[in-house]
Design goal:
13 helices; alpha/beta; about 425 residues
Amino acid sequence: MTRSLHERHRAVLPEWLALYYREPIEITHGEGRHVWDAEGKKYLDFFGGILTTMTAHALPEVTKAVAEQAGRIIHSSTLYLDRPMVELAERIAQLSGIPDARVFFTTSGTEANDTALLLATAYRGSNQILAMRNSYHGRSFSAVGITGNRAWSPTSLSPLQTLYVHGGVRTRGPYARLSDAQFIEACVADLEDLLGHTRNVAALIAEPVQGVGGFTSPPDGLYAAFREVLDRHGILWITDEVQTGWGRTGDHFWGWQAHAQNGPPDLLTFAKGIGNGMSIGGVVARADVMNCLDGNSISTFGGSPVTMAAGLANLGHLLEHDLQGNARRVGGLLIERLRAICAQLPAVREVRGRGLMAGIELVRPGTDEADPQAAAAVLEAAREGGLLIGKGGGHDTSVLRIAPPLSLTVAEAEEGASILERALRAA
């Protein structure tokens, strides 16, 4: 049955639409931190639909909210007042840390970043954007144009002029051997030099932890140091929190808060986890930035009553159950367990991450050369053992990506780590 569905998939969908595994699986249902495939096999889910099932599969509060709202009205568009949208916007504006914040809802992180770019370029009257090397910001024409990861940027054509900055990857590149303080100093000097060769840049967009890039991040404080430079030039700071938001890093509710010494960002984009699988994205911005557009606009599907009801229920559950604290506690234990497992494995270059956002970078033993074949083999072996994980990385997709729902228990963390240990040794 699964093989037949795969054949049908290949017959009608694009060749570039990626599928995991030599024999792709169909996930039919889930509960908590587990999912089942069409063959009835149960898996512990350590990837959550690409960091999207943030709290738990089939969370009762979310499914109830969706069903109740769908029973009233499913759709109206932003041309009409939408109570769930206003209520969720109020909560997100308050949580964002941005003063006098305004919120615009979209249907995805790609669309959220596209909107942020529209706002920043209109506000500044410039199409020049600073982005980080090894970054990923979505699939739209504008988003691939600012993505600093060749594997996920299929065209060099773009409506934007993009300049790439050092700093998103701590342990590779020309500054890797420096101390954290020296690394920040060198990246700031690079930014200053780059701005000396440009004019009227609109914004810097950056992921606090690079998701598709393999869960890489700079030392805490880098973007605060960048902010001093950006402010002198009037350049806006956009933080892409599509993967880092809502407490996933454990230490902070937003990734930018690890770089908060010089204040909050001007714009913040979010998506994925807030909907727990429902299509929600959005932008938070200062009122003067959000309101800078001089034309009318709407969103047909952004802020729909059903998705907003899901977001409200999901956010309420997250806050009431302190899932950020759980990410910090259980995520910390999981990362330390993974480091202990990998310490004796010559194919593992680094275990990195924070909270429930961990990456294991694989290389050919004795070198710094990425080993995507090994990553693919571990992915297969983990699936055979009953564990779903992801992969990514700017260096030939050689990083295993681990990001379970934030309600993960200690016992489940230990179970997943044990399966992954067997998979790493087998592969």
